[in-house]
Amino acid sequence: MVYENPDGVKIGLEVHVQLNKLNTKLFCCCSTDYHDSEPNTHVCPVCLGLPGSLPVINEKAVEFAIKIGLALNCSIVEQTQFHRKNYYYPDLPKGFQTTQYDYPIAGNGKIIIEGEDGEHLVGITRAHMEEDPGRLQHIGSIDRSKGTLINYNRSGMTLIEIVSEPDMRSPKEARRYLDKLRSILDYLDVFDGDLEGAMRVDANVSVFGGERVEVKNISSFKGAERALLYEIMRQKNHIRRGGEITMETRHFDEARGVTISMRTKEEEHDYRYFPEPDLVPLRVADRVPKVRETLPELPDAKKERFMKEYGLADTHARALTTEIKVAEFYEEVASKVDPKTAAVWVSDILKGELNYRDLTIDAFTVEDIVAIIELITGNKITEQSGIEIIRTVLDHGGRPMDIVNEKGLLKVEDDIVATAVEEAINENPEAVADYLGGKEKSLNFLVGKVMQKTKGRADAREAREKLIAKLKE
Ligand SMILES: [Zn+2]
Questions:
Q1: What is the dihedral of CA 335, 339, 345, 350, to 10 degrees?
Q2: Local structure of 107: helix, strand or coil
Q3: Range of 464's domain?
Q4: In this predicted structure, what is the pLDDT of residue 334?
């Protein structure tokens, strides 16, 4: 299958990733652990931009940046230089943002996503380091606000801006790209994606080879998909009515699900970039080999290994390797029970129940799922009971074996099922005659009788098989 891309959609994404797993900010020693703190408690003269203060580059931040570049299959530059991007805004106390901008630490990479027509390559133009500005807090809604407060706790946090090529052909592919990016960053252990503002997205999108429009202010992956769907529809309708798409920046209004024009190309700022005189050029090439050694096995490689090592199908292997925590959980389970059975129970059943409750894999233990799988493969409980135990653990807590005893889930012995089968056949001669006469449906009636007699503790599939065997005699 080849994806035709009927509207000639081209989407490129710029993702700001906050490296919140660093202990300190990019140019000072302030702690990055501010998310639950009072405003303006994680600040110092450097990140407040006070006169006379001097930045010192965070060595670990550079290593994280190299790590990300390598994981995105980028080449790493020999040497980089920070620049000042000059503009005035209250959240930027220095009056400029220190950024690598045109001297990115990494560039020319690519990642594989699950595209509209199978595996699809998305080019990574560049990844550069910069500092995060502070945060404005409006009192009440933005348009009727009585005042605005400023919190500088975020000021000076390390950001990596990852810029993709316009290689995505639909909002769905854009979403898959974001999911893949998040997966890779999770594997690298450089950020906690659940913290506020950990990943922020700007998108540019064009249709039919027209000018590209930038959509800013997207705060979630779902929001990105919605913003792009809206923007593509808007551009198509505009062209259909004889209009022309001009280069502009639009803002995504999440509540209304629409994009609103912010400024056209002519109004774009001139940032007067110049080299940051307080920071010497940074030689990074020497660091690369050492950082390369610290790279973990990444999602694509892990998926391949799961297929080879555990004999898993592509879909299972992918589902189990998207999140590093799930992959580790699965491998522990697979070391104790049959890996293929483990894949079904972890990927299809447990993950389904967790998603339904908006929970992560941390909500369950390896020990419990292993116990449940062993009860099933040991023919002690039915699969349906296994699912019931998972649900009970998640909703009310408790240990699998206790739940089995409390709820009386132990499968009835084989001879009890056999007796029930025999009774069902003897007591229902009409249904038996119908079945033997070719009415397949009568079998369901007999299975129902067996389930009734065993109070639902027999395995329905087993009861069916036993009935068929008995009726053949
Ligand atoms: Zn500071």
A1: 50
A2: strand
A3: 414-472
A4: 97
260 C-alpha to ligand 1 centroid (Å): 35
Cα Rg, the chain, nearest whole Å? 29
Last residue of a domain, one of 389, 407, 425: 407
Residues 325 and 355 in one domain: yes
Q: Return the ∠ at Cα 190 (arms to 189 and 195), rounded to 5°.
A: 100
Low-confidence ranges of the chain (pLDDT < 70): 142, 264-268
Q: Give ion ligand 1 contacts, CB < 5 A.
A: 28, 30, 44, 46-47
How far apart are the CA of 153 and the centre of ligand 1, in A? 8
Q: Quote the Cα angle for 203-94-220, to 5°.
A: 25
pTM: 0.85
* Ligand 1 midpoint to CA 78 (Å): 28
For the chain, the distance separating the N- and C-terminal CA atoms, rounded to the nearest angstrom, is 50
Confidence at residue 268, expressed as pLDDT on a 0 to 100 scale: 60
Is 174 part of any domain?
Answer: yes
Judge if 303 and 378 occupy the same domain.
yes
Of the residues 356, 377, 407, the one at which a domain ends: 407
Mean pLDDT, the chain, integer: 92
Distance, CA of 443 to CA of 467 (rounded, Å): 8
Q: Are 92 and 134 in contact (CB under 8 A)?
A: yes
> How far is ligand 1, taken at its centre, from the CA of residue 156, in Å?
7
Cα(274) to ligand 1 centroid in Å equals: 23
Q: Read off the pLDDT of residues 165-216 as tens digits, 9 standing for 90 and up.
A: 999 999 999 999 999 999 999 999 999 988 888 999 999 999 998 899 999 9
Give me ligand 1 centre to Cα 182, in Å: 27
Q: Which helix (H) or strand (E) holds 317?
A: helix 314-321
Q: What is the pLDDT of residue 337?
A: 96
